[in-house]
């Protein structure tokens, strides 16, 4: 019984990280209907950024989140404006996807050259503290990361819901033409969306870097996990990303505990496939423009 | 009397509480142009969607060349010889005019003659000079011709033409009407939905008038023209 | 008619000329040629589905992996047979098993359109890759070895060079035949507008399944050759996302609008990677990335598209 509760707790904590790591991907897919393969590189880039701040400047990873988000925001804006927007304007969804793939190759290459391909991790002083609640043990780092993830999702949620630009983003997602007729500059909205998504991806990368080891090549994993979370929960909604992430976290740790670690990824990918076939719009399915 | 090409009996389709088509019966014959007219929302397009299997019917039966076709899927109905030309042309934009027509020829009817008739169809639809152009480059009038040509190429026993004249200048309309007549003179039936009344009266062998999903008149153009119910329901709006 | 015979004759001559190259070239260049034919073969197989119907599979490496492991396992059943028979047996196993699995997944997966089909194929490849790595019958993480089937008198790289060339020729011939057939016109109609195609009487589901199974089966047979050439396979080496991406990138660089697009793209990309970038191995990925972005933004219809545009401009003059 304790083992099950422990597994469920671990699953939820991990799921929270999967959720925050997927919101950016979800936002871009929902608003621009672009499958953004650069997502994982912004996540991993965030982890490397935090590593630098911690090992060179001695800054706590959690404190490095705001400045790293700013950097990622700027990079995302530039990347969208220079490379992705021209491809989106070609009208071919695959063109946009390929361009994001090309950008990712370049970024992975630069990260590998700078940091080498060896495994890195960030372990601040509090990273080995365990909390005990009854028989259940909880890593402090995971709990902190989970809490930060929820806080970030809440921030993004209120930005989208209450701010002027958030409303404009949601309107453009529903109908680009409609928004443009109301005087919205769709290109600026897309750039903003991409920049915000990149910032949150980088922030999640910092949290991931505190919990798990990482390499430049690991970016693929985080893009694919984002895919699964978003497909499972539903495209373009934060609630969907939350739900999808928590479910996937539970499934992942349950599989690991009761079937064996080799089956974890297989079960996750099977869930992706099954969701696509049974309910392609996800559990909270509003497909936005993605299903053309 | 011989069996008609198309025999529609008690055709009905409800969308929730709305009876879009309500107990409509009519026939269409080979070699004749029959027009369906009526104000917007009278049920003309719904009837086309029902005949082609794009929508399932709520009640009634459709017999085509002696076979029940209600309940069949779109593709099977097309193979039996009912072709449809859309009001908003949906050409294969990346293909040439000739290849568009060829797709129609290869799939409308399963026989060996398909590819051989492409040139003939291009001429019939007035497309010979445009044959090598990409469909994406055509004007609205040319697209409408292509839409008809692609339908002609299937060598249909019955053509459903959905507002083929909408938005065209008179010269283009004349060309379209001429090719519809040419098709009918080769023995095909034509079911025409059109708002251009002078054109309908000129080209039709029979006119069927619908209002709010019900059939209110069916006869020769000149008779329908004088029918008081029709004048009240529809033509009356335009009469002096 | 005369034009068709000329093209056919030229193609035969070109293949014959390519076939004699191993007698003149150094082993390194023969291996480059072999790589080009394999990746061109894969790209054409992928294009059979994507180019005709615009169903972009993101997981075609699934069929490479299936073909590779089917060949490796099939060869264990006939360890004593003559090498030529073993080769035919391995190719057949790759073809049939990949085709069979394609047929099983075709119906559910082809109901999905656009992005959803693309992602679902990615998921198929990931699931199969993980399953192969997890179950011991496939050698687990250690993988499976394949016998060397090249005769003693022939250099190994030349042997596989010829097999890959022959397979590429077969795949191209099939693609060419389809493009001129009723099937080809139906698939083109599906690509342009699937609903309108259905209204015109194109049996869209059946045609899509045919294209999908054909594409998967042929990819599987080339996957068998790929495995034989490697001599040793693991889940990671044949269920590899980058294999799927290479098929897509090669086809796009060459141009989606023509059968020759994938071949030209594979030749250019592989040639550039193996010959020009050989000394810049450290920056290989970045340069590939820049190339992809440049092609998508500057030459959206690929190299074939550029050439056609130039010809059209010359014709206007």
The number of helical segments of chain A is: 11
Strand ordering within the main sheet of chain A: 1-2
Over the alpha carbons, how many angstroms does the gyration radius of chain A reach? 19 Å
Q: Averaged pLDDT of chain A, please?
A: 87
Q: Low-confidence stretches of chain B at least 5 residues in length (pLDDT < 50)?
A: none
Low-confidence stretches of chain A: 287-292
Helical percent range of chain A? over 70%
Describe what this molecule looks like in 3D.
The complex is a heterotrimer of chains A (292), B (240) and C (317). Chain A contains eleven helices and two strands, in the order H-H-H-H-E-E-H-H-H-H-H-H-H. Chain A is an all-alpha fold and 292 residues long. Helices cover 35% and strands 25% of the residues of chain B. In chain B, helix 3 (97-108) crosses helix 4 and helix 4 (118-124) crosses helix 5 (140-153). Chain B has a six-stranded mixed sheet with strand order 6-7-8-3-9-10, with helices on both faces. The N and C termini of chain B lie far apart (40 Å). Chain B is built from nine helices and ten strands. The model of chain B has no long low-confidence stretch (mean pLDDT 85). In chain C, helix 2 runs antiparallel to helix 12 and helix 11 (241-254) packs parallel to helix 14 (302-316). In chain C, strands 1-2 form a two-stranded antiparallel sheet. With 317 residues, chain C is mainly α. Chain A binds chain C through residues 33, 35, 83, 86-87, 90, 92-95, 97-99, 101-106, 108-110, 112-113, 220, 224, 227, 231, 262-263, 265-266, 269-270, 272-273, 276-277, 280, 290-292, and chain C through 56, 108-109, 111-116, 118-120, 122-124, 126-127, 130-131, 133-134, 241, 245, 248-249, 252, 282-286, 288-293, 296-297, 300.
């Amino acid at each position: 019984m304790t083992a099950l509760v422990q597994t469920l707790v671990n699953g939820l904590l991990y799921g929270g990280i999967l959720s925050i790591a997927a919101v950016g991907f979800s936002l871009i897919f929902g608003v621009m209907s672009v499958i953004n393969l650069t997502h994982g590189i912004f996540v991993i880039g965030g982890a490397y950024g935090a590593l630098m701040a911690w090992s060179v400047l001695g800054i706590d990873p959690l404190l490095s989140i705001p400045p790293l988000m700013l950097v990622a925001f700027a990079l995302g804006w530039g990347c969208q404006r220079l490379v992705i927007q021209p491809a989106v304007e070609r009208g071919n969804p695959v063109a946009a996807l390929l361009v994001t793939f090309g950008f990712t190759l370049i970024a992975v290459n630069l990260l590998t050259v700078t940091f080498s391909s060896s495994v890195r991790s960030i372990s601040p002083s509090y990273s080995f503290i365990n909390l005990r609640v009854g028989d259940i043990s909880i890593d402090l780092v995971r709990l902190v990361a989970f809490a930060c993830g929820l806080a970030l999702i809440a921030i993004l949620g209120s930005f989208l819901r209450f701010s002027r630009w958030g409303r404009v983003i949601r309107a453009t997602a529903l109908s680009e033409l409609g928004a443009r007729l109301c005087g919205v500059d769709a290109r600026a909205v897309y750039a903003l969306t991409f920049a915000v998504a990149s910032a949150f991806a980088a922030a999640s990368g910092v949290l991931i870097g505190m919990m798990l080891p990482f390499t430049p090549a690991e970016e693929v994993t985080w893009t694919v996990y984002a895919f699964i979370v978003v497909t499972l929960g539903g495209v373009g909604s934060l609630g969907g990303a939350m739900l999808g992430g928590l479910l996937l976290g539970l499934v992942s740790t349950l599989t690991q505990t009761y079937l064996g670690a080799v089956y974890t990824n297989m079960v996750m990918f099977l869930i992706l496939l099954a969701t696509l076939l049974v309910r392609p719009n996800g559990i909270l399915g509003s497909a936005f423009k993605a299903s053309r | 009397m011989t069996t008609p090409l198309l025999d529609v009996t008690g055709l009905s389709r409800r969308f929730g509480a709305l009876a879009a088509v309500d107990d409509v019966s009519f026939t269409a014959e080979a070699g004749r142009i029959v027009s369906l007219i009526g104000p917007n929302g009278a049920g003309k397009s719904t009837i086309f969607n029902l005949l082609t299997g794009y929508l399932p019917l709520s009640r009634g039966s459709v017999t085509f060349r002696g076979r029940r076709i209600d309940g069949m899927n779109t593709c099977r109905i097309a193979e039996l010889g009912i072709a449809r030309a859309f009001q908003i042309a949906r050409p294969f934009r990346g293909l040439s005019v000739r290849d568009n027509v060829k797709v129609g020829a290869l799939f409308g009817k399963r026989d060996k003659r398909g590819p051989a008739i492409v040139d003939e169809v291009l001429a019939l639809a007035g497309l010979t000079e445009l044959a090598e152009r990409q469909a994406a480059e055509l004007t609205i009038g040319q697209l409408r011709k292509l839409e008809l040509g692609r339908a002609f190429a299937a060598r249909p026993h019955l053509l459903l033409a959905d507002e083929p004249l909408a938005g065209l200048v008179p010269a283009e309309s004349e060309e379209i009407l001429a090719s519809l007549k040419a098709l009918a003179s080769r023995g095909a039936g034509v079911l025409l939905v059109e708002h251009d009344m002078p054109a309908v009266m000129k080209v039709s062998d029979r006119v069927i008038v619908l209002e709010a999903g019900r059939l209110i008149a069916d006869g020769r153009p000149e008779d329908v023209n004088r029918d008081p119910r029709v004048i009240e329901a529809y033509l009356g709006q335009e009469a002096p | 008619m005369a034009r068709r015979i000329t093209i056919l004759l030229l193609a035969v001559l070109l293949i014959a000329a390519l076939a004699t190259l191993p007698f003149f070239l150094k082993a390194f260049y023969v291996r480059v040629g072999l790589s080009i034919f394999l990746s061109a073969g894969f790209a054409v197989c992928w294009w059979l589905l994507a180019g005709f119907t615009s169903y972009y599979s993101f997981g075609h490496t699934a069929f490479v992996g299936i073909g590779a492991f089917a060949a490796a396992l099939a060869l264990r059943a006939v360890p004593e047979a003559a090498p030529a028979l073993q080769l035919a047996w391995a190719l057949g196993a790759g073809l049939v098993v990949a085709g069979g699995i394609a047929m099983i997944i075709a119906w559910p997966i082809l109901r999905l359109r656009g992005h959803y089909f693309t992602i679902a194929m990615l998921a198929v490849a990931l699931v199969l890759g993980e399953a192969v790595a997890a179950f011991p019958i496939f050698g687990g993480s250690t993988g499976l070895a394949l016998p060397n089937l090249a005769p003693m008198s022939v250099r190994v790289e030349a042997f596989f060079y010829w097999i890959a060339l022959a397979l590429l020729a077969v795949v191209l011939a099939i693609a060419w035949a389809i493009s001129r057939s009723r099937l080809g016109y139906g698939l083109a109609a599906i690509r342009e507008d699937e609903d309108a195609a259905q209204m015109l009487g194109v049996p869209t589901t059946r045609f899509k399944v045919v294209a999908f199974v054909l594409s998967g089966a042929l990819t599987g047979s080339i996957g068998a050759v790929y495995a034989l050439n490697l001599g040793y396979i693991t889940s990671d080496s044949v269920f590899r996302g980058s294999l799927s991406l290479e098929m897509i990138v090669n086809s796009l660089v060459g141009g989606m609008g023509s059968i020759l697009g994938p071949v030209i793209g594979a030749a250019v990309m592989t040639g550039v990677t193996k010959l020009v970038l050989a000394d810049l191995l450290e920056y290989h990925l970045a340069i590939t990335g820049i190339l992809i972005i440049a092609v998508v933004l500057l030459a959206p219809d690929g190299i074939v598209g550029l050439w056609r545009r130039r010809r059209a401009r010359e014709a206007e003059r």
